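Quick entry, no commentary yet.
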Amino acid sequence: MVIETWSPEETFAVGEQLGKEAKAGAVYTLNGDLGVGKTVFTQGVAKGLEIDEPVNSPTFTIVQVYEEGRMPFYHFDVYRIGDIEEMDEIGYEDYFYGEGLCIIEWAELILEIIPDHARKITIEKDLEKGFDYRRITIEE
């Protein structure tokens, strides 16, 4: 499925809809260059999960846990992972195979441990279509 958005608000809304539809145990990989709107999208997902606290990219902590919504939400940013063993150290399996929703930014860096049931989400810019244009591809 491909969705085109023309503003950060529309990108947020796509994330919010996915959050509303999310089932416990789901894993979404989130790929895209710096500045494409991964955090805005993730904030929308959190809203769809009924999480009201601020959601920011966990760049320096690897995982941020939110438990106040309708299910736990585990937001990973593995951009700074130097070695897959770092994922073992934080007990990634408890999150990936738990009762919440996982979003993993930069998942291509840890492909060997991504569950088979993960949905791949890619966000891309196309400056020819405008500064705020985004193409969001969701693969089952």
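second:
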Amino acid sequence: MPSTRDIRRRIKSIKNTAQITKAMQMVASSKMRKAQIAALAGRPYATLMNDVLAAVAGNVGDFSHPLMELRPVKKTAVVLITTDKGLCGALNSNLLREAGKFDKDTTVYVCAGRKGAQFVSRVKRNLGAEFTYKDSPLFAEARAISRFVQKLFLDGEVDSVEVIYTNFINTLVQKPEVRRLLPIREIEGVEAGVSGEGGGKVLKRTDVEYLFEPDAGAVLGNMLPHYLNFLVYQFLLEAKASEHSARMVAMKNATDNAKQIIKDLTLEYNKLRQANITKELLEITTAQMAMG
């Protein structure tokens, strides 16, 4: 049975841990709100951009572009968007489980986030590149990732590009998603891919007639790279909102658990202290009776 000194030490240690988790919860909470606003703010632009692209695609006729080229898939690039730090619940574990489903011999990984790169190195898979991104992702960071995988695809080094990221649904729910980035076959509504509805809705083409300069094909050809750049940027925003939300919830649960453990240990300490006092009183009473 532990002594009262041991229990006091445990209570002190857990109180220190609770202070750390509480501080981390507050930091994550402040960052979470900003990241959620950024992720939600990007969705209307994504929807409008897809409306425009759908309108252009509906007036372009038979159009071909290197980014839309279909070929037998012999090698796949996977863009794995994870966090740099842990302590965010099962968020990274769920992403890495999805990443592990791809064939080891025919997959090259492009990692955004330190946890993903560590996973690829640990399981001895092919790491093509590692990128970093800030707490407030920049469009330039997303464009660098997008251009890298576009170059892999255009050079014929890979035949398809998939993205694994965490889709932000709400503060308590974040869902790992696998999205096809290349080749582009249909322009899908980004709002379906990032709002938790799932499935990827193909936008309806409009009957309104547009005039394009120089022509619809040239407009669509110039917009497709930007379309991919913004998709990756939106994925980064979703990932950051999910990360801070998951970390806030995880640290709150850790703080609540620490408080419950402290409560239980305090009760045990009081019981043990009361038992010791009772034992000492009995010893004093027995000694007085023995002395007559």
